[in-house]
Amino acid sequence: MDPHPGRGCTLADVLAIGDFSRLTHLSVRTLRRYHEAGLLVPARVDAATGYRSYDPDQIPTAQVIHRLRELDVPLPDVRRVVESPDPEERAALVARHLRRLEAELDRTRAAVSSLRRLLDPEPAPLAVELRAVGEQTVAAVAAEVDAGDVPAWYAGAMAELAAVLTADGADAGPGGPAGGVYDNALFEEGRGRAVVHRPCPDPPRRGRVHPLTLPAVELAVATHVGPHDASDVTYGEVGRWLVDNALTVAGPVRETYLVGPPDTDDPAAWRTEVGWPVFRVVP
Fold first, then answer.
1. pLDDT per residue as tens, the chain (283 positions)
2. Looking at beta carbons, which pairs linking 153-156 to residues 24 or more positions away fall under 8 Å?
3. What's the rounded Cα separation, in Å, for the pair 41 and 4?
4. CATH architecture of the domain formed by 129-280
5. Backbone CA torsion sign across 113, 114, 115, 121
6. What is the 3-state secondary structure (H, E, C) of 126-174?
7. What is 1-124's CATH number, 1.10.1660.10, 2.60.120.200, 3.40.1670.10, 2.30.40.10?
8. Is residue 46 a contact partner of residue 55, using CB atoms and an 8 Å limit?
9. DSSP string, 222-267
10. Is the pTM of this model over 0.70?
11. Which end of the chain is more exposed for a tag (fewer CB within 10 A), N or C?
């Protein structure tokens, strides 16, 4: 896809910039900007007037640029797409950006869903229960993580955990779903210890995977429905319930991933139990 064709065409073969603008739905101002950036160079530029003219063969290239910019593809990536002679490379560049857009769309949908729930004058009550959880032996991956890096770290840690347990024949099986433990500092200071784990009677020690004993605890538990990055509303509802019931937080929050990415690609179907370690406030 050559953004610079038509250098040998005659004056009768070219389109005035206004006509080219109407044909491609790119404004004259945008066409001038793309010329200055070297992204879409006119077939002819009058030396005396600076007036730009375009070859009809440039219309498909201009239309591709228009569509890519509508998708907010950055100009450097647009340049790589239109200048690449390899169709597979062009397709890979576009696909990579589409994946980014889909991830952003998922985050936007989650934020909209959370806002609707927050702004509902009579939100549906959230079911919260107190649950005693005994000491548990798990295979775990732990690290000090910045809050903004948690999603990427979580995905990598979970993948490593699953791979090691599968290789060792020590998959959790009936032992229960995966879970996480997140220190208070992660929420309060933006950096803290995060742990993901799977129940395992004899945890292996390989790579980042190691045995860990989770202490017995009493939890206030509620189930969050939907993507993980929209769980703040559920956290807030649990916090209100704790205040209403004269309970206070006594340790790092625990999550249990009843249904998650390994089970389905649909974030709307995910189910996460949010558990706050608690003790009663003495009057």
1. 555 554 444 444 788 998 899 888 888 999 999 999 888 999 999 989 989 999 988 898 888 888 888 878 888 888 888 888 877 887 888 788 788 777 777 777 766 766 666 666 565 567 899 999 999 999 999 999 998 899 889 999 999 999 999 887 755 444 689 999 999 888 878 899 999 999 988 899 999 999 999 999 999 999 998 888 778 778 888 887 887 886 777 789 999 999 988 889 888 899 999 998 987 655 5
2. 153/194, 154/180, 154/194, 154/196, 154/228, 155/261
3. 5
4. Alpha-Beta Barrel (3.20)
5. positive
6. CCCEEEEECCEEEEEEEEEEEHHHHHHHHHHHHHHHHHHHHHCCCCCHH
7. 1.10.1660.10
8. no
9. EEEES-GGGTHHHHHHHHHHHHHTTEEE-S-EEEEEEE-TTT-S-G
10. no
11. C
Residue whose pair of structure tokens reads 């073969």 in the numeric block: 13
Token duo for residue 29: 């101002």
How do the domains of the chain map onto residue ranges? Answer: 1-124, 129-280
Tokens of 98: 């589409």
CB 170 within 8 A of CB 202: yes
